[in-house]
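Researcher: I've been going back and forth with a colleague about how Ubiquitin carboxyl-terminal hydrolase might be arranged in three dimensions. Neither of us has a model we trust, so I'd like an independent prediction. The organism is Manihot esculenta, in case that matters for your notes. Sequence below.
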Amino acid sequence: MSRLAEQLRLSLITKSARFLSLKLSYFSLSTFRLCKSLARSFFFKTLALFPSLMDDDLFSSADDNFLDLEFSSASTSNYFQPHFLDDDDNGVDKLYLVPCSWWRETQMGANETGVLYDVSVSNDDDMEIVLDLKKIEDSRKSSNAAEGFSGQEYALVSGTMWLQALKWHNDCNVAVTDVHRPFLSEDDLEDVFPIQIRLSVSWETNSLVVKISLKDNMIGFYKRACDIFVPEAEQVHIWDFSGQTTQFLNDRINLPNGSMGQSAEEILLELQVHGFSDSKNGRDESIDGMIEYDRKDISFDSGSVKMNGSSDYVISRSTPKNLSVSGCRYRRARFLGLTGLQNLGNTCFMNSAIQCLAHTPKIVDYFVGDYRKEINRENPLGMNGELALAFGDLLRKLWAPGASPVAPRMFKLKLAKFAPQFSGYNQHDSQEFLAFLLDGLHEDLNHVKCKPYIEVKDADSRSDKEVADEYWQNHLARNDSIIVDLFQGQYRSTLVCPICKKKSVTFDPFMYLSLPLPSTTMRTMTLTMLSSDGTTLPCPITVSVPNCGRLKDLIEALSTACSLRNDESLLVVEIYKNKIFRFLEEPSDSLALIRDDDKLVAYRLPKVTEASPLVVFMHELLDKPSELEKSVPNWKLFGIPLVARLSDHSNGSDFRNQYLKLLSPFLMPDDTLNDDDSGVTANEDSAMEDVPSINVSDGNADSDSETDNGPLFSNDFQFCIKDYHGRVTEIEMNKPLLAPSYNNRLEVHVLWSEKMVEKYDTCILSSLPEVFKPQLCTRRPQESVSLYKCLEAFLKEEPLGPDDMWYCPSCKRPRQASKKLDLWRLPEILVVHLKRFSYSRIIKNKLETYVDFPVEDFDLSTYMSHKDSHLCNRYTLYAISNHYGGMGGGHYTAFVDHGHCRWYEFDDENVSPVSEDRIKTSAAYVLFYKRVS
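Model: Here is an independent structure prediction for Ubiquitin carboxyl-terminal hydrolase. You can compare it with whatever you and your colleague have in mind.
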């Protein structure tokens, strides 16, 4: 008995499921919320007839979020599957009624085959229109069958088809419109309005019966429906290109009797109507779809339609209070695709990149079309298609006619799941966001379900073309999507070992080109030059170096300016607060990291064959408090540190002798000294042994040991070493000093007596100019560089950095190999990233260099290592992502070519036309080029 009950239970569920599937597949006529409401209502009413079914765990929840249905096409599936979906991710297309001639004009409409219905119209009652749709079963089954038909022809198309056709007509309008006109006329974009219909099936005549009642529609919409469906002509035909109606007729199903408060065998649905002008009011009412006004300036006559427990307002008329142009704000022009994106809080970086992608022609065509069938839900690297669905939904909203600025909240939520760094509301880099978005879309749309493992073969003596093609086919075997087809190219990477000259060649894919910004101007830098032989005073030296050069360029310029000998080397350091802040030793470091207000010193040191320790002498002077201050005296740093190299076994006297030698140029002239005040020399070692020492155990002088008549010690220096904890150890003159333990460098603090301060010119010792001191009322000229120069700098052979060593397979050791990149295969969409931002552990910087980039003809033919006669290497610009401001903030916008050099600026939700001569600015950050066909 229980087994029989279980079979009955499963059979009932299957029948209900099949009924819902068949009927809901035709619910493409309605909005998703209405579908969900009807489905939930009918499903639970059915279960209520069999209370035992409600005990099942599968249907125990009556929560509002339960039983969101994922609808499958009725032609391919006769079942439904419970699935938890977001309201925006419903997978349901609305159904649109459009003029058949308008549909056939499109390239897609000309090739589509539809089902033809002969329509009998009756309008006996002024309150209701009845349409009887009977399928024509003769040979007229193509779109060319009704040629010469004198009546009215309409077409039923899905929402995807409608948007594709609408974009096709929009592109045609853009192409034929005068390029000097900033806007189209009001007649070029027609409105869309919904009508509520009651649908039933007449099995006797095998036809669909559609009733349009005044009680279900607002008066204005009903009158427009009368103008459309009750023409003067006697015959009316409707073509179904959506493929929805045939399934409804072919499967004999029983409609519910009186369910959901409706009459028997009738379902209340919604149909979108497009392309029919209002015969009474003309087309002037569609002006609100052309120009966006402030909401407070518009009055609405609207009705409320109950959907899924909430009231959604259907706007029947919207009349601006003030029709003057001065009384409105232009947010977008009268073309499709000119819809802004709301800023959710520091999301301008995201809006800028999205607008550039949303105006990439083939990306638009792809996501406006039926892209859902290509979603890869099995890819562990993807997001089960969620990111692609969210982006596709967002792009369709941006291309919907007359749309208000879109808030991309759902898209941002899905993106944060794929790339958590973009969660929250911090400012980010638009290029970094673009890279993650393209990668995520690729993984969601990758046609490869199971990526094969492919072992890379050695090139041996094969030709570059053969190896490159092999690399590319291996890449396509694992990666196949619209993103790969459009955005990915290939470059050749060559590494050469500096020792054994081993060469390695690989062919790697790229999604975009990140180009450096070389400078065509020179930068003036002033440094202080110091010698270690005690023969010359410090002197400023000014050199010119490339503005975006490297440290090696600065060293070469200094060596030439000071006539550096072969047995000498230069050590460049930055001085901050009278001590060495950092050593500039890496030749590949960028000079852009050196600021104008930095203070640099270059020390001339003898070249040594063995690793002699570097000794840095720092000067300290007793800082006495004033009579009003009650603090104890402190030793403080002053002057420029002096540098020398000593042997590993030097003792205290060697340090003292070297220091006095370095100080000798700073001695005051003899005529300013008394006969008994001769300066201390390096030959007075024995006399210095009797000089009393000071207490330096805690780093401070003992104030009690100071007399009223003199300093703590009479006439010399005292040498000591401080550790990281501030403890001070005095250097004894006759004892050897231990070798330094940190980076072969030793810091020695020299305590000066007041007597020594009088004998040496400390003013010269403290003189230290800045790298660059701008003069009053002068400005540097704006830097300018060609985009081709940036590309040449990118392709230039350079050594790898010390942190990016290459493991040489011949030497079996990491080597600082030289690297050379060459363009091998270019994508259809070329994204160029200008590297304006530089980062280091110390400083962040943005380059404001003006890049002169081509707009109409970016020719890369001469930069290609491989010539392909079938592909053009010339590109035209169509979008720019701009960044204004400095590091850590600023603002992003986008410039977009909307066809035939009509440029628009997208500044979050504001969209406005811009002339082509204004799109070239120093804010250009990411450039989007498309191949010239």
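Researcher: What would you highlight for our discussion?
Model: I'd start with this: The chain has 20 helices and 40 strands. After that, consider the following. The longest helix spans residues 2-25.
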